[in-house]
C-alpha cells in the first residue's frame, strides 16, 4: 500500500470523528441474510442512507465547516451543488451557525431549490448554466471572503467521509471486502485510507455506472479525463473528477483494488433488492453496491460490507422501479 499520496495526517480520521460527533449520526451496520446466502460468505450493509440530510455527504461537509478558522467562519461558506453535497453543506453550516450560500442556475427544479432552502441555506439563482453560477461563486470568494467548500477533492472532506470506514471497522472488525459507490472519489478515498491504515489487506471495490463514470475512465487513462455526462438512475454519481484533481484521483489509484461498472438495468435491480429484500428505500447511487453483488461483478472475499449511501430519490420514480417498470432515463419523456 502507498499512503504517500494521501494529504491526510495519520490522525485525520479520528480528529474528524470527534469534530462531527455532535452533528452526524453513527449509522447502523446490519446483516443481509439474502445476500449472505447468495454469496456464500457473510454480507453486511452499512445503512448510511439513514444519515441526516439523506446521505454521508453531511460528514465531510460538517468536518470541513468545523475546521475553518474564526475569520473564515464569520465570512461564511459557499457551494454550487444542488444535490447531496449541497444538502449536507447547508445543514452543516446551519448547525454551526455559519452563513451558507448555495449558487444555482435558473434551470434547477423548484423542489431542489426549496429542499436546500429548508435546510437553512441562502439560495442564489444566477444565469442559466452551472458555469454562470460558478462565476457568482468566484465573486463571493474574491469580494466577500467566503470559503468555497467543494464536494470531494479536499482533505477535510475526505477525512470526514473516512469516518464511515472507522465505524465499519468497529462493527465488523474481521471485514475482508468493502464495496463503495464511486463518483468524485471523496468517499472511497477516505474509507480506503482509514481502513487500510488499520488493515492493509482489506479489499476496496469502487462501484459506478456505465454511463459517465469519470473516475473509472481516468484510472484507465492514467490521468484525470473528462467524460460526457448522461442521464442515469445513479444521478448522484454523475459529474467529473476535475482535470486539476489534487487528491482523490491519486488516492483512488493507490488504494482501490477493483472498479465495477453497472448498466441501468443492474442499478434498478439494486434499488428493487434494497426495497423488497432489505426493506430500505435507497436512491440509485446508494444501491450500486447491492447491484454489483447481485450482478456478480465484484471479486469478494468475506466478510463483506456494502455501503448504502443515499436515499434522495423521487418517490414516484422509486415506486415505478420497485413495481417492476423498466425506467430508462435516456428515453424518459419520449412516450
Ligand atoms: C456523492 C455521492 C456518492 C459518491 O461520492 P464521491 O465522494 O463523489 O465518490 C455516492 N452516493 C451518494 C448517494 C452520493 O451523494
Nearest-angstrom radius of gyration? 19 Å
Helicity, in percent?
40-55%
> What is the number of helices?
14
Element-level helix/strand string: HEHEHHEHEHEHEHEHEHHEHHEH
CATH topology of the largest domain: Rossmann fold
Relative strand content:
5-15%
Provide the list of bound ligands, each named once. Answer: pyridoxal-5'-phosphate
**Distance linking N and C termini:** 51 Å
CATH class membership of the largest domain: Alpha Beta
| Residue runs with pLDDT of under 50 for 5 or more positions | 1-5
User: What is the mean pLDDT?
Assistant: 94
CATH architecture of the largest domain: 3-Layer(aba) Sandwich
Query: Could you say how many structural domains there are in total?
Result: 2
Instruction: List how many beta strands DSSP finds.
Output: 10
How is the largest sheet built, in terms of strand order?
1-2-10-7-8-9
Largest sheet: 6 strands, mixed
